[in-house]
Amino acid sequence: MSVLEMKVPSPGESISEVEIAEWMVEDGEYVEKDQTIAEVDSDKATLELPAEQAGIISLRAEVGDVVAVGQIVCLIDTSASKPKGDQPTEKAPKTIAPNPGPVSPSNDQQKTYASGHPSVAAKKIIDENNIKVEQIEGTGKGGRITKQDIIQLLASLPEEGNRKSEVRKLSMLRRKIASRLVTVKNETAMLTTFNEVDMKPIMDLRSKYKEAFKEKYKVGLGFMSFFTHACTLALKEFPTVNSMIDGDHMISYNFNDIGIAVSTEKGLMVPVLRNAEEMNLLQIESKIKELAIKARDGKIAIEEITGGTFTITNGGVFGSMLSTPIINPPQSAILGMHNIVQRPVAVDGKVEIRPIMYVALSYDHRIIDGKDSVGFLVKVKEVLENPEEFVFGGKDPEKTLMNY
Question: Alpha-carbon torsion 388, 392, 393, 394, what sign?
Fold first, then answer.
């Protein structure tokens, strides 16, 4: 028998552990080389774990286990042959062996003590639901009652009417997001300033050229490219918005690595456009599309979601009229886009109905003054309301868009 030990690969430089989010295969199943066998959560992203060789797999970790980088999570018997036709794979017993740990002479005593006793997480749910411990048979080590035992028991209980509840563990990514958001609120002097943008010039341009643009380049001409370009011009004019605090120092950057917030099933991710100030509209749209697909498919690399200097988030796609977005640390500012609504506005002394978007800039007041934050938003507004001048530099938009 030839057995391959599969260890947790390093997802990134700063990550030392991951959580087993889901096994995509069963214990004793035959797997092909490069087949996805598990999804693992780090505190930055959900990643897929592919089989390094083909063979019969034996799991060595359970869903929910937090395992160190380099730790063995499964074995693959590479000498096993693939079952022929519809012949089922002969599977190993459905028990999952725990990760090997230090052996102590008191194991028997621990087994006796643990039997029928709930874990800390299990006890919390037991107390909240007034469950009698005597009716539960623990499946944990030494007969200990695990959190999963309680969840399964609750699921099996008869329901009264349509009143149901579900208890599930937050993913490592969601827990990290929660921790970061609380830290931002507690450790920054966050303030939000607002403005409004008349989107008619941008919408007119898109209506006129978006079909030809998409047909030629196979990518849409969206609002995000215009906003990203506008932000790069505003960041150049107001560099403190593109800065960060490091202890008693302020770090300012002469490049714009713009994070674009993307909603995924696993939570919010922020892929980064490197050197966005050097990109044209086509390059921005293409890169956003590429990174968004990777993020939603769980295939994005850690390097692609770290290191941004400024972030843009678009709550408007979900119908948000106005919000105060939370800064993405260690950055010092974030721009919030919102939905576009037909509103009455004064234009040259007359009331007209225009497509208006409210925009918000949340910023760390410790290093960004009100003058710079307001000036930044005014510049973004100026660029978006005058795209021929600021986006196309006075050149013919059609020739520019169709000749990238």
Answer: negative
pLDDT band at 240 (very low <50, low <70, confident <90, very high): very high
Rg over alpha carbons for the chain, rounded to the nearest Å, is 27
Cα-based distances in Å from 308 to 11, 29, 121? 18, 42, 36
Is the pTM higher than 0.85? The answer reads no
For the domain made up of 3-77, give the CATH fold: OB fold (Dihydrolipoamide Acetyltransferase, E2P) (2.40.50)
Coil, strand or helix at 43? coil
Q: Which two tokens stand for residue 224?
A: 């995000």
Per annotation, catalytic residue among 34, 127, 204, 369 = 369
User: What whole-number distance in Å separates Cα of residue 335 and Cα of residue 357?
Assistant: 13
Residues β-bridged to residue 357:
197, 340
364 is catalytic: no
Q: Over the stretch 375-403, which tens digit does the pLDDT of each residue have?
A: 999 999 999 999 999 999 999 999 999 99
Q: Catalytic residue, from 198, 365, 372, 396: name it.
A: 365
User: Domain ranges in the chain?
Assistant: 3-77, 107-156, 187-401
* Consecutive H or E run containing 194: strand 190-198
Q: Clarify whether 365 is annotated catalytic.
A: yes
Fold of 107-156: Dihydrolipoamide Transferase (4.10.320)
Q: What per-residue string of b and e applies to 330-355 under the rule 16 or more CB within 10 Å gives b?
A: ebbbbbbbbbbeeeeeeeeeeeeebb
Q: Which of 161, 159, 149, 173 is nearest to 19 (CA)?
A: 173
> Which overall architecture, per CATH, does domain 187-401 show?
2-Layer Sandwich (3.30)
Residue with tokens 């214990």: 27
